[in-house]
Amino acid sequence: MTSRLTRAAAAGAALAVSSAMFAACSSEPETTPDDVITIFAPQDAGQGQDLNDNAFTELIEEKFDVDLQFETTTWDGNAAAEKRQISLASGDYPDAYMLIPWVDQFSSDELVKLGGQGVIVPLDDLIGEDTPNLAAAFEKEPGFKELATSPDGTIWGIPTWNDCYHCSYPSKLWMNSAWLDNLGLEQPTTTEELRTVLEAFKNDDPNGNGEADEIPLSAAGGATFLAYLMNPFLYTAEMYGNAEGQNPAALGLVDGDVTLQPTRDEWREGISYITSLYADGLIDEGTFTQNGEALIAKGTSAEGVIIGSVTVQHPWFVNADQEDGRYTEYDAVPPLAGPGGDDTFFGGGGAGATPGANFVITNRSSEAKQKKLMQIIDFMVSYDGHLQGEYGLEGVNWERPVEGDVALDETLEPNFKVVSLPTEEILQNSWGPLSQFFSDAEFRNSQVTATDIYTAAGYERRLFEATELYEGHESAEMFPYWELAVTGETATELATIQTNIENFVAQASAEFITGVRDISSDEDWAEFQQNLTDLGADRYVEIYQAALDDAN
Fold it and tell me: What single DSSP character describes residue 215?
């Protein structure tokens, strides 16, 4: 989990050269025999996953009489995106790409370009009688088929449809309730109350060890951190799903007009607030630079509990194995009210359904392989195939429900129960999120979940209940970019402008907060606005306004 702000520049560079890379894919790649299928895919080797030696891989090979050979990358978004671009540019690319959308995936514009160049093949004629589960999923969730259909009307790839309730509100704040109790404090409800709590965390020794070792507020990268703290001032989308630049996170809707949020006085006010927290030592200095592993090291510190609160989607920075019980101490804090009294918040909208695709078939694949690949995808869309692909072996990684089991959504019949095992044991038997093509609400919420939310077995319910604190606080300024289509030369123009502006906003936000730029200086603010203009801010808004008008 690399800091998104840290990787922004590299991600932008990869996107900027992508057109040139695609142009390099002109020669016909060599093919392998029909019973050998090569796939480019990310794997979590650090957690013991090896796709070439995996129980679900073996199941697929036996079921479909194929030999799967993986070219792998990591779950780090920047590294994965770069390696994918290099793979495409080499001309010696695999039969298929199978990606994880929140790591890296093909954008809608990439799909149209690669399809037009013949590098990837259309899937429309491959979806039908031979793929009954996928066809049924398209019928059950029409939005899934709409998401899979590129702006040119062709299905060039299969996206992920993931009705992940807790993912839909990714910008959460998790605060140590034990520290609040120790200091006689309540959860904050406003931005100024948050300041008071963080000051107490810093100065009043809430962990009781007599040392000033507490970190009041931390994060890994700026996406969730900025979204949670900025939304009390104005709508701020989280860059959820891909590296910065691929989605228009800096845009909002003000009275129906597309607006670049960092041009507004409210944005300056929000950044000023965060800057004041940072200047007072209430925010971890590593917030914009540390990756997930660094945050976990702090969250699981052998020296004791040192983190007071973290802006993150869910509390993965601590684990249930720690004997001091810190795993049970962090609870979600609802959206904060800002100076205007408003507590509107970013609702995820398209968070579980990012435009583009995470599965494509290349022109290296023969007709026989294309049919086989689609049958494999179809199996992973089926109920049992999904269970085995995402979770692993029945009886080892998951079980059928028994009497008394309760589904996550208690209005649904329970359908499966995940066995709590170390991550490495799960990923040795499954493809994990790589196989999560169709997770509708019925599938996800029929999972058996313990009613004690502070146990590992009750973790999903903990996230579900935490998210209920955020639902209903959606901002009227939310910009539904996932519903809009921009095609042709305009899409090419937009890709460059969007990458440049989104990367710059992410970078400048960190610079203002850490003091590299002075948010209180009118000169620095004017320079920031001019930088946005120079990068094409007016054209950025104009293109998306036209797309919004066309959609309406």
Answer: B
Q: Taking the complete model, does pTM exceed 0.90, yes or no? A: no
| H/E element, 72 | strand 67-73
Of 16-30, 150-164, 367-381, 464-478, give the lowest mean pLDDT range: 16-30
Cα separation, 192 vs 181, in Å, equals 19
Same domain, 194 and 305: yes
Q: What is the pLDDT of residue 239?
A: 64
3-class secondary structure, 472: coil
pLDDT of 15: 39
Q: Which pLDDT does position 96 carry in this prediction?
A: 98
**Does residue 12 form part of some domain?**
no
Above 70 in pLDDT, residue 262? yes
177 and 146 both lie in a single domain: no
CA distance 532 to 246: 17
The DSSP H or E segment spanning 45 is: none
* 223 shares its domain with 323: yes
* Cβ-based neighbour number of residue 50 at 10 Å: 14
Q: Give the SS3 label for residue 441.
A: helix
Could you tell me if residue 443 is inside a domain? yes
The reply to whether 196 and 333 lie within a common domain is yes
Residue with tokens 């690319």: 93
The pair of three-digit structure tokens given for residue 498, joined into one six-digit string: 């969007």
Residue 289: C-alpha distances to residues 35, 43, 298, 312 (Å): 45, 23, 14, 15
Domain boundary among 437, 462, 481: 481
Q: Tell me, yes or no, whether 389 lies in a domain.
A: yes
The predicted pLDDT at position 11 comes to 36
**What's the rounded Cα separation, in Å, for the pair 196 and 182?**
15
Amino acid at 158: I
Query: How many structural domains comprise the chain?
Result: 2
Same domain, residue pair 319 and 369: no
Count Cβ atoms below 10 Å from residue 334 Cβ, excluding itself: 18
Q: Is residue 15 part of a domain?
A: no
pLDDT exceeds 60 at position 4: no
The per-residue pLDDT for range 410-440, each reduced to its tens digit, is: 999 999 998 877 777 778 999 999 999 999 9
In angstroms, how far is CA 195 from the centroid of its own chain? 28
Contacts of 199 (CB under 8 A, 6+ apart): 216, 280, 282
| Structure tokens belonging to residue 547 | 């797309």
Backbone phi, then psi, for 135, in 5-degree steps? -60, -40
- Looking at the structure, tell me whether residues 211 and 342 fall in a common domain: yes
Looking at the structure, tell me whether residues 441 and 375 fall in a common domain.
yes
